[in-house]
Amino acid sequence: MKVLVIGSGGREHALVWKIAQSPAVTSILAAPGSAAISELATCHDMSVADLDGMVELARREAVDLVVVGPENPLCDGLADRLRQAGIATFGPSKLAARLETSKAFAKDFYARHHVPSARYGTFFDAAEAKAFLDQFEPPYVLKADGLAAGKGVVIVSDRAEAEDEVDAFLSGKFGDASRTLVIEEFMAGEEVSIFALCDGEDVLYCGAAQDHKRVGEGDSGPNTGGMGAYSPAPIATPALIETAIKTIIEPVARGLAAEGSPFQGVLFAGLMVTAEGPKVVEFNIRFGDPECQVLMMRIEADILPYLQATATGKLADMPALSWTAEPAITVVMAANGYPGSYEMGSVIGGVDAANKMEGVVVFEAGTGRNSDGERTASGGRVLNVTASGETLHYAVDRAYAAVDEIDWPEGFCRRDIAWRALKTH
């Protein structure tokens, strides 16, 4: 098979790395890809926003399957365009992608299909939004309706601060994404991410992980796109996974199909495990980043037939995914200043040495190469130092030993990834 992977980050590096292990692969293309991905795939330098270019590339190269990594091209309708061109595609339609592109749509959808989630209200008017805060005890949860690069959620305990945030959101704190505001009841509990492949009809469990959204240790500071993840997560017991599939993921898949937008791709359910059971925090319509990196390390099966079955409506024919018993962890190394402003172009040493360590793979999320061939930082989240081990303790020790091999004074990482799980052991 000839496979085209869309995207350029750590998630896509991990997908290409895993797909490259399939005996069924003859060649892998990536668009735009990256310097790191080019070691495994032929890269075509084009913007993920260039839908015409992506479709033309897939046609010209006669690819058998397109795997779309990031959410933006899916939200723009890339999967629709590819399917119209007769190309098998792993990734949902623009209509199905509303599950991620609009918090307001998603909340109304959960209500229609009796999917457990927090009480909420949707607002365009600041006075109405502030009055709605009376419905809840603090802390208050405010969410931008649209895509905000994983940063469009604010949780505040002070009422005056919450009212200030209402004004900020509705006046464009996150651009057009926050001109519609969703206010939710705060849900107490522990978060977990559950993944399932969906071919428009059938659903197949595809792993659980726990990520660390806040920039600082002890889960402090502002939200980020994710500072690390690990799998399996102790909170994701077999009973919890079964409940989540039956009460949340299957009803969402059935509901989308019933409303005329069947979902083909990966359903990523961000859940809060509350005293009443799991409830939806949000759904994403692509693999999580950095959760994808640990899932790809742990999946024992050849991933390619599963991606193809998802794209072609054949999941019912596939056995359950097989997993290695070894836990995996990824530690995100980010540029100093992230998630605020940061500098690009600093030189990163030691990655090759880290990659030679047993059980370690460094997925590159935001790197380039300078004229001397040295790795350089080209983003906010730059490296995903990923490791597996016989136990979670071993995996964590390996990952941080690999971090210590990397020479990058302009970068930082959290030193407590997987702390919840380690605390329980």
Q: Can you describe this structure in just a few lines?
A:
This protein has 425 residues and is an alpha+beta fold. It is built from 14 helices and 23 strands. The termini are far apart.
Radius of gyration: 21 Å
| Shape, principal axes of CA atoms | globular
Q: Alpha-carbon distance between the termini?
A: 43 Å
Number of helices: 14
Biggest β-sheet strands, sense, barrel: 9 strands, antiparallel
Total number of beta strands: 23
Low-confidence stretches: none
Q: What share of residues are in beta strands?
A: 25-35%
Helix amount: 25-40%
What are the salient characteristics of this protein?
9-stranded antiparallel β-sheet, 425 residues, globular, 5-stranded parallel β-sheet
Secondary structure layout plus pairing:
Layout: E1 2-7, H1 10-19, E2 27-32, E3 42-43, H2 51-60, E4 65-68, H3 71-75, H4 78-84, E5 89-90, H5 98-101, H6 103-112, E6 120-123, H7 126-132, E7 140-144, E8 153-156, H8 159-170, E9 181-184, E10 190-199, E11 203-211, E12 214-216, E13 220-223, E14 228-231, H9 238-258, E15 264-274, E16 277-284, H10 291-298, H11 304-312, E17 328-335, E18 347-348, H12 351-355, E19 360-364, E20 367-369, E21 375-377, E22 381-388, H13 392-405, E23 411-412, H14 419-423
Parallel strand pairs: 1-2, 1-4, 2-3, 4-5
Antiparallel strand pairs: 6-9, 7-8, 7-9, 10-11, 10-15, 11-14, 12-13, 14-17, 15-16, 17-22, 17-23, 18-21, 19-22, 20-21
Helix pairs in contact: 1-10
